[in-house]
Design goal:
Shape: globular
CATH superfamily of the largest domain: Medium-chain alcohol dehydrogenases, catalytic domain
Number of domains: 2
Order of helices and strands: EEEHEEEEHEHEHEHEHEHEHEHE
Largest sheet: 7 strands, mixed
CATH topology of the largest domain: Quinone Oxidoreductase, Chain A, domain 1
Distance between the termini: 10 Å
CATH class of the largest domain: Alpha Beta
């Protein structure tokens, strides 16, 4: 089969399109003929060698959708030919990839394989942020950074489903329109306005209930300062770089606030949790109540361009890689 292989860490040119061995599913796993893979910023970090456990050679990607073509030992609730998707697989940048059956879900006919690949990781992330990390309630206010990105657009929509007011930050007026279309009540152009001052102005100095921050280094210090007493600063990404070490006394100074650094792994611990999140997403999509915006699709052979597009922060929704 064809696959993208990273032989050494570095820039996007290190994503090499080449022949690779067909993977075999182990016990409790399935092999999927990939129809679409979702690109996520974590793969850029991995390609750069940012994590201590990153290894080479490796084929990136955990989020994909396609058709099961082989079952590992002990798999009984999925069958060859099933339309499935996962956010927790491995080797997604390839024609065939492996996924644990417990983290693999059937895709209803009303949802295309491309839509599934576009929503699984980012949609489940938005779901756990709004329902589990900080369960939003009607009448509360959430500040959503990168509100026109893949997670951001879904976060805005799901937060509005919860009855919350949404303040979004974006870089351009074009992205501001996308955020408004997703339900953002107020949009701050952070290149032109100081989001801390603007948020406090919108809130009449009261502070927001929660900040969902995927930007990291450039935003997190100010994110903590716009919270109400005992509010939540939720850091779920670091697109601008890692946050500096935190003096815990600041949490007291800003009003006994809370902070947490969640990832999907800790919010999809068992099959029941996975199905809760994906069933909600698929049902909302089928009913036309959740818009999943596919921004751009790249062929597998040009995965490097997909990474550059993401690194340049040009995304206006989900980026897919298609074999």
């Amino acid at each position: 089969m064809k696959a993208i292989v990273v032989h050494e860490f570095g820039d996007a040119s290190k994503l090499v399109y080449e022949d690779a061995a067909m993977p075999a599913p182990g016990p409790g796993e399935v092999r999927v003929k990939v129809q679409a893979a979702g690109l996520n910023f974590v793969e850029i970090y991995q390609r750069r060698g940012a994590y201590a456990d990153s290894k080479t050679p490796a084929t990136p990607g955990s989020e994909f959708a396609g058709i099961i073509d082989a079952l590992g030992e002990g798999v009984t609730d999925l069958q060859v030919g099933d339309r499935v998707g996962t956010a927790r697989g491995r080797g997604a940048y390839a024609e065939y990839a492996i996924a644990p059956a417990v983290q693999t879900v059937k895709i209803p006919d009303a949802v295309t394989l491309e839509q599934a690949a576009a929503v699984l990781l980012q949609g489940m992330t938005a779901h756990y942020l709004c329902f589990s990390t900080y369960p939003l309630k009607a009448g509360e206010t959430a500040l959503v950074h990168a509100a026109a990105g893949g997670v951001g657009l879904l976060l805005c929509q799901i937060a509005k489903r919860c009855g919350a007011q949404v303040i979004g930050t974006v870089s351009t007026e074009e992205k501001a329109e996308l955020a408004r279309g997703a339900g953002a009540d107020h949009v701050i152009l952070y290149n032109q306005q100081d989001f801390e001052a603007e948020t406090k102005k919108i809130m009449n100095g009261k502070g927001v209930d929660v900040v969902y921050d995927s930007v990291g280094k450039d935003t997190f210090a100010k994110s903590m300062r716009v919270l109400r007493p005992r509010g939540y600063a939720v850091l779920y990404g670091a697109a601008s770089g890692p946050v500096e070490p935190l003096d815990l006394q600041l949490l007291n100074r800003y009003g006994a606030i809370f902070t947490t650094r969640p990832t999907l792994m800790w919010y999809s611990l068992d099959r029941a949790e996975v199905l809760w999140r994906t069933d909600d997403l698929f049902n909302w999509m089928a009913a036309g109540e959740l818009d999943v915006r596919i921004d751009k699709t790249f062929p597998l052979s040009d995965a490097a361009s997909a990474h550059r597009y993401m690194e340049d922060r040009l995304t206006r929704g989900k980026v897919l890689i298609v074999p």
